[in-house]
Hints:
Blueprint: H1 2-5, H2 16-20, H3 26-48, H4 55-70, H5 74-88, H6 98-120, H7 123-141, H8 146-163, H9 166-173, H10 179-206, H11 212-231, H12 243-249, H13 252-262
Helix pairs in contact: 4-9, 4-10, 4-11, 5-10, 6-8, 6-13, 7-8, 7-11, 9-10
Amino acid sequence: MAIDEFAGDDKMIMTETEQAQLPVSRESGENGSDDVERSVETDKLSEEFEPVVTLKTWIVCLILSLGYGLSFWAVPVMAAIGSQVSAELGDPSSYVWYIPAWTIAITVSFLWFGPNSDLLGRRWFLVIGNLITTVGHIVVASAKTSNQITAGMVIIGFGGALCQMAAFALPELLPNKWRHIGVVFADSVIYITVIVAPVTARYGLEFGTWQWNYWSMTILQFLSFLGLLFFYFPPAHPAGISIPQTLKELDYVGKYMDSTDLGKPNKVF
Length: 269
């Protein structure tokens, strides 16, 4: 039927095999060849630059996540048993400063060191932060007075801000393909902290061993400090600004004003 209808026309009906045998025009041939070459080159590049994450990098990510999450531990513990602990130490009303002391300290520390870690690199901020937090846990665990607990919470908060810079360090260690896993590691430790810490705090208070909520954190945070000290060597910051130049250009007056302002009560007019 189709042959009869088009018999009088100059057009011809060709099979797919005949069409494939036709010569390709110069323009379409060249473009097709270029596309094939580009595709081959892209495949080679993707194979050549396939992201590889070593076992050492994964271990460092776990250590960073540990230090990051455990720096929050002191807050849910004192939220659960702070009033009873302060009463036990003979100063029933002093517990109201435990968590605010941590909050103010971590805020000041973030203001001082957060932006500077972008310029100076994160290694020593994270290493020293875990060491400071370790000291804070020791101060609280060995406390004989409520004031000592408050001082310990300040130290934990100040070091905790440095530990929590791991949230920025983790994505820098992992390629985009694996980056979400690093974030999940860090967040998982936080979820464990806020769920488990109040339970262990209440049990510790019941059996007179609440201090071990902080002695155990002393051990774990110190292990995190050692792990970062010996294994965490991130790439140099691309800005390439020297430490003396960075220290020279810091806004010390602004940092001082921000810090002192946090301790002033807000007035509502």
